Amino acid sequence: MPLVSASDVATPTWSALVADAYTRLEAVSPLVRIAAGDGEREREPRDTGGDTGAAGAGDWVRGSRIAAEPERVEHLVDVEAERIRTTYGQPPRRDVAATWALQRYLFTACLTLSGPWYLQRRVPWLPLDRIRYAWQNRAFAVRPLGLTCLPGDRAAELPGVRVLSGEEALRAELRASVARQTGPVLDAFRPLVRRRPRALWGMVTDQLAGGIWHMGRHLGEEAAAARAADTLLPGNTAPYRGGAGFRPSPDPDGGYTRTRTGCCLYYTIRPDSLCATCPRSC
What is the reported pTM? Predict the structure, then answer.
């Protein structure tokens, strides 16, 4: 039996429209795992608090608990340190494990908001306490409270929807929503990551731009995604540090590249290797 999407329903709910965006993301990228509830009832997995030792795919913790309880962050970093040791054959520095754990979280956390924005020009209302995270496979379960859209969107007349004046207003809404959702998590990770706020917001800039780029490449529209990220993050939008800064890649295969605002510290694990977007490369 063929799947029926919200686009096939005459009067879909706003939650079905948002869920459609997440379904499309999961279909095109093996790295993206986002499941959405209906905004009214709790359908996502139970919050286990992350207390079960070595994390498995079924260990879920609420985003607000990550922000408020230091032991949750310590556990996330412990799990990431073990993953790095198993994958690369050596234990990482504590700040490296913390940086990687935070980046893995931020990548999908940003996509919970930027995915519907890029695919549908809609931004969900998604407070931190409406998010649950399973760190073993970077999965998110979310329960948006509503959404914001543009004039002329068929969602505009639905209950629980706020309509903005135009594209720039919607971009500002996305930037503000990402900042509200990620800011408390940055504060929680800061003692272990050992970076100042400017560097932490640079990580959010990188993951927000990188997620949009990731979507574009998997959808076969890299140039459009690069333009969208550049317009969203032109470089003067505090608290974000720097801009997306995409440019044509010198690679013979073409495409786009950018220079990250901060280093992911991969060189501490593989000293002879640099990421293609590393700011340490000339």
Answer: 0.89
